[in-house]
Write a structure and sequence with these properties.
mainly alpha, globular, three-stranded antiparallel beta sheet, Globin-like, Multidrug-efflux Transporter Regulator, Chain: A, Domain 2
């Protein structure tokens, strides 16, 4: 079956403007343009749009989606299986948050008690799931399942105070990096303070710290576009600057 841009938009629940934009950026081209100049979409395009919307639901950027689905090695069946696994993880996360809210309601009404640890379980689980979805594959390939699982377990067992500390520390790292970038010297006192804060942040998650692993992680921030985008969103070049500062801090050679 074939669809005009308007009918496909109605079918998928997206605007015609969105479909035209997908065409413009090359992520979803119509099968053909008819004699009246209308975009016409076939079954292959319907299936691709479904894949795009699956990825969008999981929070993947359009640039990343384009690279994934235009890759010659793209495996549709494998991608669907991965979507299913991620959605199940998302459902488990929502179930945990629902239970957390129900317990909080019961506590507020005086029908139950709730430990401080229980109050934050849902939020910490959400952070773990988000990190797994965004970076899990690369991190597990680089450091192994045991290391990542231990890191997740440390996060789950954090006290409220520790959780607040590590969240505040992440902001301090970004603020210090922004200040250090003004001088542009990764060996400066401010840049090295940023590297030290980054080390402190890592110790909240890692079972044990090593200079080699720290330097390797900093390099991955540059090599992986998603990490790079996170650090560079306020100022381009931040990821590379942090990498250079960490290499000096850890006395490692690139």
């Amino acid at each position: 079956m074939e669809y005009t841009v308007q009918k496909l938009g109605q079918l998928a629940g997206v605007s015609t403007r969105t479909l035209r934009y997908y065409d413009e950026i090359g992520i979803l081209k119509p099968a053909r343009i008819n004699s009246s100049g209308y975009r016409i979409y076939g079954q292959a395009e319907v299936d691709r749009l479904q894949q795009i919307l699956f990825y969008r639901e999981l929070g993947v950027s359009l640039d990343r989606i384009k690279k994934i689905i235009t890759d010659p090695s793209f495996d549709k069946a494998k991608a669907l299986a991965e979507h299913r696994a991620q959605l199940l993880d998302k459902r488990r996360q929502l179930d945990l948050l629902i239970v957390n809210v129900e317990k909080t309601i019961s506590m507020t009404e005086g029908r139950a008690t709730m430990t401080d640890k229980e109050k934050f379980e849902g939020f910490k689980q959400r952070l773990i799931e988000e990190n797994e979805q965004k970076y899990g594959k690369e991190i597990r390939e680089k450091y192994g399942d045991d290391t990542v699982d231990q890191s997740n377990e440390k996060l789950k067992n954090m006290t409220q105070e520790e959780y607040e500390e590590v969240t505040a520390l992440e902001k301090r790292i970004l603020d210090t990096l922004a200040e250090a970038l003004k001088d542009g010297d990764p060996a400066s006192e401010t840049a090295q303070r940023a590297a030290d804060l980054h080390k402190q942040w890592l110790t909240y998650y890692w079972k044990e710290y090593s200079k080699e692993a720290h330097a390797g992680l900093a390099q991955m921030y540059v090599d992986d576009e998603r990490f790079k985008a996170y650090y560079d969103k306020q100022q381009p070049g931040t990821a590379e600057f942090l990498r250079d500062a960490v290499y000096i801090y850890t006395e490692q050679k690139r």
